[in-house]
Amino acid sequence: MKDNFPSHPLILQNVSHGYGELAVLQNLNLHVEPGEFVVLVGPSGCGKTTLLNLLSGHIKPVSGTIKSEGIIRTVYQHDGLFPWLTVTENISMGLRSITNEAARKKELGELFELIHLQGFENHYPHELSGGMRQRVELARVLAGDSDILLMDEPFSSLDYQTRLRLRNELCRILEKRPRTVIFVTHDIEEAAQLADRVLVLSNRPATISRELRIAAKRPRNLTDPAVTEAMRSILNELGLQTD
User: Fold this and answer.
1) Contact, 57 vs 72, CB < 8 A?
2) What are φ and ψ of residue 192, in 5° steps?
3) Exposure string (b/e) for 108-127, b if CB count within 10 Å is 16 or more?
4) How far apart, in Å, are the Cα atoms of 66 and each of 11, 62, 69?
5) How far is CA 170 from the centre of its chain?
6) pLDDT, tens digit, 9 for 90 and up, residues 98-157
């Protein structure tokens, strides 16, 4: 299967959106390079999830244009696994385009190895921990020819230690199967650990109030100077820095 990211960028030009008289996003301009990991942070209710829905094509902007190429898949806060299907059957939902049985079996084997869940092929979601379920969800969205991952607070419902482990797991998986990623989080620490670029959104109607590039290689330790400096900058922009 294709293990590289698309050759075309994702571009938003003067994108605005709202619901009736409620303006949510205003004149957003964004250029995401192929393979880039972009994290969106901002105040609650500022429109981060709305932006993901626009990028996925689930909704259309009131004005402006969005240009993207390739297959887009979304990972949500609460995994979207089907409880009546086994792990293998859930992951196979992302492999429906593969009609050759041998190729399908090979891809499944590679995905189980990638998420370190060999031996759990016939388990059901309720038999897995939250972290394991999210790894299955990652395998499903990486299955087949996916190009762009939209991730809406995928680790926020998990305990802190599991979140730390899954951040490292995500870095490891993306190193093996690169994708363009747009990631929404309220967790400033998570943004600083994962992002190539952090975009801080303002209050509604949201615009990009700060863009922060982080050049340090992933995975990053919490004590890495690049992480602590990025956290300080993000907190300052959000008005949350106390010193």
Assistant:
1) yes
2) -70, -30
3) bebbbebbebeebeeebbee
4) 6, 11, 10
5) 9
6) 878 888 888 888 888 888 889 999 999 999 998 899 889 888 888 877 789 999 998 888
Q: Strands 197-201 and 208-213, how do they pair?
A: antiparallel
**Which pLDDT tens digit goes with each residue over 90-100?**
999 888 878 78
In angstroms, the CA 217 to CA 211 distance is: 18
Q: How far apart are CA 243 and CA 214, in angstroms?
A: 22
Q: What are the residues facing 197 on neighbouring strands? A: 38, 213
Q: Provide the 10 A C-beta neighbour count for residue 231.
A: 18
Query: Residue 124: in which H helix or E strand, if any?
Result: none
Collapsing DSSP to helix, strand or coil, 212 comes out as strand
One-letter amino acid at 204 equals R
Q: Which helix (H) or strand (E) is 159 found in, with range?
A: none
CA distance 81 to 136: 8
Measure the CA–CA gap between 237 and 239, rounded to whole angstroms: 5
Residue 11: beta bridge partners? 31, 67
Q: Taking phi first (over 0 means left), then psi (-120 to 50 degrees means alpha), and beta for anything else, what does residue 186 get?
A: alpha
Strand 197-201 with 180-184, pairing: unpaired
